[in-house]
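ARCHIVE CARD
CATEGORY: sequence design from structure
SOURCE FIELD: tokenized fold
FIELD CONTENT:
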């Protein structure tokens, strides 16, 4: 059915409004990062800084160890993404291909676990990490991130496994391949778009996470970037707006760059390679 012209105009208008809604916080953050203190205190703020400056960025790096905190966040996010994908991929394969009561129970638990708030998890996680002597350590934080990302990673990859034709695995079994060989050589290459998307989700979630890092990391040299950003807010709740905006803008760049580099592979790979000719 062909869409009428007024309907198309309405669709494009709604899409444009949605894009503006999504882009507004980032654009305002970018504008604030380049404004001098005089413009930040103006009663009539403007979108484009009249006298742009890099002073906020210099001040942000002078006041806080942003590079070291970014390195901690990068290590934690990459490790959590890799471990979550390595665990979730075979789990998703088993849950989808072996339709037992246990597999259904695991799927139901995955859905239910997403409703748990952070506050309910932090106390038992803290006690477990304390017994393992992993409090105030990046490996302990990675373990928490893996636990938090694993249910949704499993749910995402299960959808991709269902899209892989079982006939391909049956053909591999006829050729003498076992379950592990089939997963590694046949199913996993077809799951590449899903694995990349799941890894990206786990990475961004860990990179932006604040609550667990705030509770579990105590010493400044172990803190991640989201926690360090709070140091730009004074004891009375007054924010050093310019340096805070500059640091927050730099903190958003890795997620944007990673997504921009692999988004074609995600969308293109989903449309190819899933059907045996």
């Amino acid at each position: 059915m062909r869409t009428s012209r007024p309907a198309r105009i309405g669709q494009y208008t709604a899409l444009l409004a949605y894009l503006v809604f999504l882009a507004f916080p980032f654009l305002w953050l970018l504008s604030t990062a380049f404004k001098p203190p005089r413009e930040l205190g103006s009663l009539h703020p403007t979108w484009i800084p009249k006298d742009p400056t890099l002073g906020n960025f210099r001040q942000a790096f002078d006041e806080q160890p942003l590079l070291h905190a970014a390195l901690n966040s990068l290590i934690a996010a990459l490790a959590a993404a890799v471990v979550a994908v390595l665990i979730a991929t075979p789990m998703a394969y088993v849950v989808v291909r072996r339709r037992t009561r246990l597999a259904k129970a695991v799927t139901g638990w995955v859905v239910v676990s997403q409703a748990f708030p952070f506050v309910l998890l932090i106390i038992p996680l803290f006690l477990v990490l304390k017994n393992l002597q992993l409090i105030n350590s990046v490996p302990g934080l990675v373990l928490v991130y893996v636990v938090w990302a694993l249910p949704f990673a499993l749910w995402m990859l299960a959808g991709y496994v269902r899209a892989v034709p079982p006939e391909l695995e049956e053909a591999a079994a006829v050729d003498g391949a076992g379950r592990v060989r089939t997963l590694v050589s046949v199913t996993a290459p077809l799951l590449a778009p899903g694995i990349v998307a799941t890894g990206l989700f786990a990475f961004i979630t860990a990179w932006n996470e604040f609550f667990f890092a705030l509770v579990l990391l105590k010493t400044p040299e172990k803190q991640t970037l989201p926690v360090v950003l709070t140091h730009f807010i004074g004891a009375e709740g007054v924010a050093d707006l310019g340096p805070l905006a500059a640091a927050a803008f730099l903190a958003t760049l890795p997620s944007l760059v990673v997504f921009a580099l692999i988004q074609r592979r995600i969308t293109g790979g989903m449309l190819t390679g899933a059907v045996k000719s």
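CARD ANNOTATION: Residues 63 and 74 are 21 Å apart (CA to CA). Residues 66-97 form the longest helix (32 residues).
SHELF: design records, drawer C
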